[in-house]
Amino acid sequence: MVGRPAVPEVIWARPERAGRGPKPVFSRADIADAAVRIADAEGIDAVSMRKVAAELGCGTMSLYNYVPRKEDLYELMVDRVSAAYELPEHPSGDWRADLVALAHQTRALMHRHTWVPRLMSPVYGFSPNALRFLEYALSCLDGLDARFGEKMELVAMVNGMVTTYVSNEIATAERSRSLPWSEEQEQAVRTGYLISQIMTGKYPRMAAAFAEDSGPIDLDEVFDRALGRVLDSFERSAS
């Protein structure tokens, strides 16, 4: 395949376009933007080198001169949307507040680009915007008395918690959209069944939980509580 490397390489260490010839027609940003548009409109499974090439108006084979592998295309996409992070020049000095703010930005970004959680992996950790994010996140933790290894673990845990949480939110929303009835109708039927089971007396703890808080669940509050518990665990271990 044209442009494919014979050995492992990092896309960011590779020239914008491999091979001889005239000045490149497209930039990596152009290619990433095209792929992001497709993923946003049709989902990540719809992204292919053929579709991206068609979006750009070029031949599929010529695209490999810019992006050797589909995995590299994914990395370009994740980095491109990560440019949307608004990172202050300096953190506030309150490491918990700063990490909470980052987590909320990540959650919002993933809801704007619902395919991102599926691509979150260490392989996408070395792009320019990923490194920019990580350096800022670590700078937020300058006031935390912990080793850098522990700080890296904390950032990874926060990102993992956000990714898992948003993945569930997205999956729930996608399921609701696929139903032939409204989400309210679905929820009413399921709640009615749950109540009928609780009323049998077989589930006293569930009955107590339901009596204590029958809902509806505020997903924003649950998100903040879960995030707080992650931060609490590191605050205690560092004290």
TrEMBL record:
DNA-binding region(s) in UniProt: 48-67
One Pfam family hit: TetR_C_1
UniProt xrefs under SUPFAM superfamilies: Homeodomain-like, Tetracyclin repressor-like, C-terminal domain
Domain of life: Bacteria
Domain (HTH tetR-type) ranges: 25-85
Keyword Nucleotide-binding recorded: no
Keyword Transcription set for record: yes
Keywords: DNA-binding, Transcription, Transcription regulation
Name of this protein: TetR/AcrR family transcriptional regulator
